[in-house]
Amino acid sequence: MRKQLNEMLEEFVTPHKVSTINQVLSERTRHLTVVLEDIYHAQNASAVMRTCDCFGIQDLYITQRLHDYEVNPNVVRGASKWITQHKYEREETSTEKCFKDLKKKNYRIVGTTPSKEFASIHDLDITDKTAIIFGTELQGLTDYAKEQVDELVHIPMYGFTESFNISVSAALLLQELVSRLKSSDIAWQLTEEEKEELKLEWYSRIVKRSDIHINNYMRERSQISKS
Fold first, then answer.
1. Which has the closest alpha carbon to 131: 173, 192, 166?
2. Among 39, 140, 219, 226, which has the minimal tally of Cβ within 10 Å of its Cβ?
3. Residues 6+ apart with CB under 8 A from 225
4. Which domains does the chain have, with CATH numbers?
């Protein structure tokens, strides 16, 4: 049914936009995903979301233990329309619930740390589905997250500063991992079903009064089936 609805809605979308959406979907992945643990600076949170979109990461998981997740529209530049956001309510067990969901989806959870005692991102094995979690700007990951992740990794640095800004960290890490992923034999692309699902979601946002078009289409199909 999604495919039929998409074909109907495409009549209201320019050929250029249809082509762009198909191209973007062909580069999207759920093999890698990003988790933000209790990020409270709207500018950094928005920059990470924008980075995810730029690198073809479809899902962004957001935990809210002490702070509400907010975006800066001037930074995110519309990326929130194209990224699937999984937000967890503001509560003590926000990260725990997120981790449980990721495990159900067969993700390995990898935490980021400035400590050189742990493996470099260049050595991270991404054969399995991998979720990268970033902690708060000042304190990093919570103790719970550090204890529960499958692995910790660091981004090599060569100066006096101990850590990168979180948005810079996300960009460097995704540049490395997405590049390796796309040059590998890993089946990283979305399934056709996932593409149709996202296409319907995106078309519904960009087509004016899409809900009316969909309702009319469903009504016509219902009448045809009854006749």
1. 173
2. 226
3. none
4. 29-182 (3.40.1280.10)
pLDDT at 73 over 60: no
Query: Quick count: other Cβ atoms within 10 Å of Cβ 152?
Result: 17
CA dihedral sign of residues 55, 65, 101, 130: positive
What does the block give as tokens for 27? 């580069």
Q: What one-character-per-residue DSSP string does 60-105 give? A: EEEEESSS-----HHHHTTGGGTSEEEEEEESTTHHHHHHHHHHHT
Q: What span, in angstroms and rounded, lies between the C-alpha atoms of 62 and 36?
A: 5
In the chain, beta strands by DSSP E: 32-37, 59-64, 84-90, 108-112, 119-120, 130-134, 151-154
**Average pLDDT score over residue span 212-225:** 82
Residue 165 has pLDDT above 90, yes or no: no
- Coil vs helix vs strand at 217: helix
